[in-house]
Amino acid sequence: MTTRRTRPAPRPPEGTPPRAELARQARAVLADAVRIAHWAAGTPGPGTAAPLAAHALERAATALELSPAQVRAGWDRARLAGLVELHGDTARPGWRLRAWDRDDSAVLRGWVALFDAWSLVHAAPEGIEAGAVAEAVEAVPQVLSLLQLSAGSVTVPALLDLLGQRVAELHEERCEVPLGPGRTAPAASAAPAETAADQAATAGPARSADLNALLLDWALEGLAAVGALTLGKGHATLTPLGNWAVWVKLEQICVAAQSPAGNIEQSAADMLLGCARLTPGPARDEYRAWLAARTVGSAVAELLAVARGEDALLRGLAFEALRVVGGPAEPEVRAVLAEPSLRPYALLWLAEYEGNDPDDAQDVLSREEATWLWVDTAAAVADHGETGLLVRHLDSAVQGTVPALLDEVRAVGHPRTVQVLVALAAAHPDPALAKAVRRAAFQVHTGGA
Q: CA distances (Å), 347 to each of 296, 336, 380, in order?
């Protein structure tokens, strides 16, 4: 994923619980989602969209002894946290669900994915312009930063003042003014934010303050719903989970797989994770040593089995290891061309095996296959990489423009599309672009166009 050394991780703020305790708290927040994910993964056809189809909703509520509302909320959380993925009419367990009881890092990543998607978990108030909602979402990181730096509770009026200041800054940064007679609106991408500005300017300062108060209440309730903060009478306080997550984002560090000792003795999945942070040369040496201890047939079969899993990082690394195998792997690699999740990787592998320059191998992919691979790679970066890598990954898209990329990403049907877009929106420094990406994530999540 990267060829440079990462800096030593700074120590978290004093009083931050150990990772095991943070993971325990995250498991508690997502307990219902985990139960529903296990139920959905073991039940044929639980439904293709959120909320669950009516008949499946009733079955789940009965089987799990939960109310329909709890099932619907848990299903949304399971999808957003990567616990379950939809493939057509079938729900499959995500890789995080399988690792849930044994891997604290997987649990924390799942919770952070839910934390990033708080605005999808908690529906915005009805009757509010989409642009005003988007501005509130953009302002929330500053609200969270104040909560984190305060190391305790902060009064709602102080948070409201900060939210209002940040929204005003967003208007100023975009040079937004109300449209007058004879003036035309700018590009369509700016329209939602201008609509919100018009609404505030037309209504006057009192209504603008009321609107900000309504949106702050919504944001605080949404963050409380995902376990990031607690609400008291007139004040809000970050939970240990929320405090840790905000600190992590402020420090721009990530949880990365560490290379375990003795890769030769490990399973294919553990060996690949152990090589994830190595540069290409040492990684190939590890692959060769691991392959030498096994028959070619069993090694190739094990690598392809890992590639069929839901962890996109392991999928890409499995095909890197198969490049070391070379010719003996060709029949098995050619045989997986019919599997949509492996086809782009297999086409690139075969192109390079047949002598194409690696830089030109991408030409063998159709536009749809290249887009699917872009989302899959982004999922790997979101799960295991650094924030900057996810932002730079935009440059590798074949579409050339962000609107074209978002249109094709929505159409390609990758099961991790929502999580990738939410993570990209949370990471990107350009507020306008982040807003467009969040809108696309919301449309995919809700099944909109």
A: 21, 10, 19
Query: What pTM, to 2 d.p., does this model score?
Result: 0.63
Per-residue pLDDT of 398-447, as tens digits, reads 877 888 888 888 888 888 889 899 999 888 888 888 888 888 888 888 76
CA pair distance 287, 271, nearest whole angstrom:
8
Give Cα 378 distance to the centre of its chain: 9
Length of the chain: 449
Say which residue the tokens 């293709």 belong to. Answer: 48
Task: Check: CB of residue 197 under 8 Å from CB of residue 173.
Answer: no
| Residue of 279, 363, 353 lying closest to 5 (CA atoms) | 279
- 175 conformational bin, left if phi > 0, alpha if psi -120 to 50, beta if neither: left
